[in-house]
Write a structure and sequence with these properties.
single chain, about 325 residues, alpha/beta, TIM Barrel, 8-stranded parallel beta barrel, two-stranded antiparallel ribbon
Length: about 325
């Protein structure tokens, strides 16, 4: 599989990385044995890095990843994130954003324990937090890197102003945004900023949370513990247009001879951007991991790109903004 250098680091990432959100249970859950098998299958198929976070199952995903890395004994690049706090009380699990220096340091130590590692390759602030200056959150990561506990500094889910503030504190190595065919808001601001500042981009959600696999329809329903069950992306009045986009993309993939179908087309569309180092694709089984690794197909052709733009232009409501399961910001009084 093709590998690309992440920003100004010495990390060479396969253009597809394995995402582990499903390991923690937010996508309907997965058995740990299946999650481990997915990791091994991804690595066997040429994927060389795994993205995780402490909030994914409150350490569960990190423990699975750590076990796999120890079992393999190979050079597996591990990226994790901190910045979402949690507590379990009588009302169940409560989560919120937290990016103070003290919390990020504690969160990293907790992640290293869960992973069974002394240092992590890439550590990312999971969300910007209103009221916490970049000098504090990014400064904490600079200190942790100086201590040898992380190799590279990243941020996730930042908007342009957040990136600018972070970049004014220290050079950022990596940016992790949500990005897919029907979610393109970063193309006008964040991606050009990353290009101008030598920041590598690792995009999550390239398959539109499963919609761009072509396996969903109007009758699709999700388990109660799957965040998609309450996401407007799958339930608002624009959903029929999104399905129409998928139908037309499926036909285009067939005409183009894409063996991975619409999913392959969606992934290579994300990878067409020179700013993008890699795309993160999740898997709940070995079979899915193997199939996902094969999505790094031939580069998107100019004809394919023109046809995709034409399809999206026919269904403008399909690309409107939507919520995607983020934790609330405690600085926002409307967050609840």
């Amino acid at each position: 599989m093709e590998r690309r250098r992440l920003g100004g680091t010495d990390l060479e990432l396969s253009v597809i990385g394995l995402g582990t959100w499903v390991f923690g249970g937010r996508w309907g859950g997965a058995e740990d044995a299946d999650s481990e098998a997915a990791c091994h299958a991804a690595l066997d198929a040429g994927i060389n890095w795994i993205d995780t976070a402490d909030i994914y199952g409150q350490g569960r995903a990190e423990r699975i990843v750590g076990k796999v890395v120890r079992d393999r004994g190979d050079d597996v690049v591990v990226a994790t994130k901190g910045g979402v706090a949690w507590e379990v009380g009588d009302a169940g699990l409560r989560i919120w954003r937290e990016a103070s220096a003290e919390y990020l340091r504690m969160s990293l130590e907790r992640s290293l324990t869960a992973l069974g590692m002394e240092a992590v390759d890439l550590y990312q602030v999971h969300w910007p937090v209103g009221g916490v200056p970049a000098e504090e959150s990014i400064g904490a990561l600079v200190d942790l890197r100086a201590e040898g506990k992380i190799r590279a500094i990243g941020v996730s889910n930042y908007h342009l102003a957040d990136l600018e503030a972070a970049g004014a504190v220290a050079a950022i190595d990596s940016y992790q945004p949500g990005y897919h065919l029907m979610r393109r808001d970063i193309e006008d601001g964040e991606l050009p900023w990353c290009a101008a500042n030598g920041v590598g981009v690792i995009a999550y959600g390239p398959l539109g949370h499963g919609l761009l696999t072509g396996k969903m329809g109007a009758a699709t329903r999700f388990a109660e513990n799957d965040w998609r069950a309450t996401s407007e992306f799958f339930a608002d009045e624009a959903f029929p247009e999104r399905l129409a986009v998928v139908d037309e993309l499926t036909a285009l993939a067939r005409e183009s001879g894409r063996p991975g179908g619409v999913a392959e087309l969606a992934v290579v569309w994300v990878l067409r951007r020179p700013e993008v180092t890699a795309a993160i694709v999740g898997a709940r089984s070995a079979a899915q991991a193997e199939a996902n690794a094969a999505l790094a197909g031939a580069p998107l052709s100019a004809d394919e790109e023109r046809e995709i733009e034409a399809i999206l232009a026919r269904y403008p409501a399909a690309s409107r903004p939507y919520g995607h399961g983020e934790p609330p910001d405690p600085s926002d009084p409307s967050a609840g």
